[in-house]
Specification:
The chain is α/β, with parallel strands linked by helices. Helix content is 36%, strand content 23%. The strands form four sheets. A seven-stranded mixed sheet has the order 5-4-13-14-15-12-16, sandwiched between helices. Strands 7-2-1-11-17 form a five-stranded parallel sheet, with helices on one face. A hairpin with a 5-residue loop joins strand 4 and strand 5. Helix 2 crosses helix 11 and helix 11 packs antiparallel against helix 12. The protein starts with 7 loop residues before the first strand and ends with a helix.
Length: 382
């Protein structure tokens, strides 16, 4: 790039934005990350992620954080189990032995974020900065307005700010669309001692019971936690139509038990025996393909660019690979514009392919014959 130090703003301190900032710093390029959270501990970062060799693992190696990752990774978390609605185990794939080259070891989202945050220079992340809007200044630079009153000008603004990105409107009119499937999230704590039967059914990794547009998905996290996702193909506003207040645990629990009527007690235990309330998470996706004409001084990565269903298993992995690829392009290309072009020429086709697979995976998992479809798919791929 030019001899003048570029002003690079990354909006969003998720895995993709932090990966980009880390690799840029290793290449001697300064970037500032702006995040809506008031601090790194402001909220729980969610469940577990499996790091894929050609995306998440690639990014961790490029960021020189592979050894830090391995200290916390859970290879045993790769176990995948399919259970019928009556509680029978239909398919059980144990984690591959040892550190296999094609393995996808798991790590908690919060742990991964801490690794990335701890690797950055002090004050790289500016907390409490919610982007209100960005405006093009006509020369490839942008002025960013934050809701706290701060305003900055930047040579490159990177939208790593997720599904409801405030950077995306600078490039695209696309907006996330409801997929037709909602997850209701809940949790087990100290699962191996307090919920032994549910923990045994979950196994060491992920357990899925999918049947007739419904699903119970349990995922191991570290420290004895299990996250549970109760999936339903339903109206986006199902709880409002049922007159439910999502903060009232007992009525929500009763409504969920009706949704899973006829399922075995071993599976409805994931509804009744939880240690938390219920969080409603409708699943959204951007149109496929989601592309945009090149624009100077702005680009997107991760969910801001290619929001897709979690049934790809690719969301965080792609975001991190995006961040790594953008950082690499910025370090080797002569101009920011050239870097954006090189990056988007790789990222957009890759994300289109992944998003198509994610849509297909979600459709198969929440269908009238989802149990048969999923068993066939698992048997063919393991």
């Amino acid at each position: 790039m030019s001899t003048r130090t570029p002003r690079i703003a990354i909006i969003g301190a998720g895995p993709g934005g932090l990966t980009c900032a880390r690799i840029l710093q290793r290449r001697g390029i300064k970037a500032t990350v702006y995040d809506v959270d008031v601090s790194r501990t402001a909220r729980n970062q969610g469940g577990t992620l499996d790091m894929h060799p050609d995306s998440g693992q690639h990014a961790l190696r490029a960021a020189d954080l592979w050894d830090d990752f391995q200290k916390l990774a859970r290879p045993e978390g790769q176990q995948l189990r399919l259970v019928s609605r009556d509680g029978r185990i239909l398919f059980d794939a144990a984690a591959p032995p040892g550190d296999t080259p094609d393995g996808n070891p798991e790590i908690d989202r919060g742990q991964l974020r801490d690794i990335l945050l701890d690797s950055l220079a002090p004050d790289t992340v500016q907390w409490g900065h919610k982007l209100e809007k960005g405006e093009s200044l006509g020369d490839g630079t942008h002025r960013l307005h934050f809701t706290n009153g701060a305003t900055i000008e930047t040579d490159l603004v990177t939208g790593a700010d997720g599904a409801w990105s405030r950077v995306r409107p600078l490039l695209s009119d696309a907006a996330p669309v409801y997929t037709g499937v909602t997850f209701v999230e809940t949790r087990l704590d100290e699962a191996d001692t307090r919920h032994r039967q549910l923990a045994e059914l979950t196994g060491s990794g992920t357990m899925m019971a999918l049947d007739n547009n419904r699903g119970v998905i349990a995922q191991r996290n570290s420290s004895g936690h299990i996250r549970i996702y109760l999936g339903m193909r339903t109206d986006e506003n199902w709880h409002q139509q049922a007159g439910l207040d999502l903060t009232e645990t007992r009525p929500v629990r009763e409504a969920l038990l009706k949704e899973f009527a006829g399922w075995s007690d071993s599976l409805t235990g994931f509804i009744t025996d939880t240690d938390s309330g219920y969080t409603n998470r409708p699943l959204y996706a951007l149109p496929v393909p989601h592309t945009w004409p090149h624009a100077s001084g702005v680009t997107l990565l991760g969910d801001a660019a290619h929001l897709m269903s979690p049934f790809s298993g690719m969301g965080a992995n792609l975001a991190m690979r995006d961040g790594a690829d953008l950082a690499h392009a910025l370090s080797v290309q002569p101009t920011i514009d050239a870097a954006i072009t090189a990056y988007e020429n790789v990222m957009l086709p890759r994300s289109t392919e992944a998003a198509e697979g994610a849509a297909e995976g979600l459709a198969g998992a929440f269908a009238p014959d989802s149990a048969d479809q999923t068993l066939t798919h698992m048997t063919a791929h393991h």
